[in-house]
Each structure stands twice: as C-alpha cells, then as structure tokens.
C-alpha cells in the first residue's frame, strides 16, 4: 500500500531537483518578487509574493503530506496545512522544530505548529501581507494555493516545491504558458525568542517555457 505514495514522493523529488537546476541556472530576482515572461507580448509580468503568519480567526484543521527535513543540525517537521476562516478554506505550510527528549512520542498537533500562508499582492501593494500593511492593502491580498510540499536541501538553503501556479495569458493558443511550478527558497534563522525556524525568502514561478528552452 505504501509503494504508490513512495513512488509519488520520488517523482516529486526528481521534479524538484530539476527545478533546482533551472533556478540556479536561469532565474534571478529579489525577495517575494518574481518576473514571468508573457508569451504573447514578450514582456515581463511582475508577481509579488509574501509569506505571512495566520491572522485572528484563521485556524488550522488538518495536516497533509507531512515530512522531515534536516538543516544546520536541526530537524523540522513540515506539512501542508488545511486552514479555514469562517466558510473560506485555504492552504499554508506548517512547521515545527523537533527536539530529542525523554518524553513519549506524540503526533504532530496542527495548533502547535507555526503555519504561514503564501499570498500574492497587487503590483502596487508590495507589502500587502506584512504586519504593517494598511487595511486596504491586506484586503487586496490573494491567498496562493500550496500543496504537497516537497523539499531538497542545498547547503544552507532549502528549496520547497509547492505545486502548480496558474497565471493569466491573453493568447488562447499559448496554453503551455498558462501555468508553471511554484518554488520557494528558505533558510534557518533565529526567532525573537532565540528558537530556530525556517524562514521562506524568495518565491518563484517557473513557467513551462523554462523547460522548453533548456
């Protein structure tokens, strides 16, 4: 029964390794900003991403696709988080730093993990998800669907594949350009309380054109 799941995980890992090669060879950008070439006009579309913590009235109900990742001598549990606010359902990434203790082992508790949500901001609202964003900017954020996180560690950086991302294209004949892979990069840093946590930095969309040109 576990073989299909293992095969799927190995497939996702292979895809992530391929994406990592593409990112390191042809993608550059500043934090939370990605530029995607529009196939019909040849121009660059700026996509602004930002990671934020859960807000009031947002809760985590279920965890999916859990995995372990080791960085800088620390082991983290990571999973897709199914979040809700009122009747709205969305996803995020849940993290927990694991410690070796003499206590009895227990299951991951969704409410005890640090959960962050990836949002897309309008082009004129770079910090729409930040703590200091005004109400209008926060209201304009669009939550990005993330699913089945798959990780690869490269030195002091972690790369995480977050599923598919679709973006608008005006040319109906250019279906291959209407979606790509969503990829984020993170590093381990200390929180304000001196505990270590993975902080997500750059987030990229790699359209299929990136692979067509390789």
From TrEMBL:
Signal peptide residues are 1-25
Keyword Signal on this protein? yes
Residue ranges of domain Sialidase in the record: 65-211
Identify the Pfam families for this entry.
BNR_3
Q: InterPro entries from the entry? A: Sialidase, Sialidase_sf
Q: Which UniProt keywords apply?
A: Signal
Q: What is this protein called?
A: Trans-sialidase, putative
Q: Which organism is it from?
A: Trypanosoma cruzi marinkellei
For this protein's source organism, the top of the classification is: Eukaryota, Discoba, Euglenozoa, Kinetoplastea, Metakinetoplastina
């Amino acid at each position: 029964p576990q073989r299909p799941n293992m095969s799927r995980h190995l497939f996702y890992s292979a895809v992530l390794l391929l994406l990592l090669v593409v990112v390191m060879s042809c993608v550059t950008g500043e934090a939370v900003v990605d530029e995607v070439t529009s196939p019909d006009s040849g121009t660059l579309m700026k996509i602004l991403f930002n990671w934020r913590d859960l807000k009031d009235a947002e809760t985590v109900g279920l965890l999916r696709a859990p995995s372990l990742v080791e960085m800088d001598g620390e082991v983290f549990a990571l999973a897709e988080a199914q979040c809700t606010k009122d009747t709205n359902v969305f996803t995020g990434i849940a993290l927990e730093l694991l410690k070796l203790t003499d206590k009895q082992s227990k299951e991951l508790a969704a409410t005890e993990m640090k959960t962050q949500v990836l949002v897309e901001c309008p082009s004129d609202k770079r910090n729409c998800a930040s703590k200091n964003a005004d109400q209008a900017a926060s209201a304009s954020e669009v939550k990005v669907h993330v699913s089945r996180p798959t990780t690869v560690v490269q030195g002091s950086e972690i790369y995480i594949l977050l599923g598919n991302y679709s973006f608008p294209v005006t040319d109906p004949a250019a279906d291959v350009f209407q979606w790509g892979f969503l990829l984020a990069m993170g590093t381990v840093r200390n929180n304000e309380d001196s505990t270590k946590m993975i902080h997500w930095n750059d987030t990229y969309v790699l359209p299929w054109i990136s692979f067509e040109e390789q």
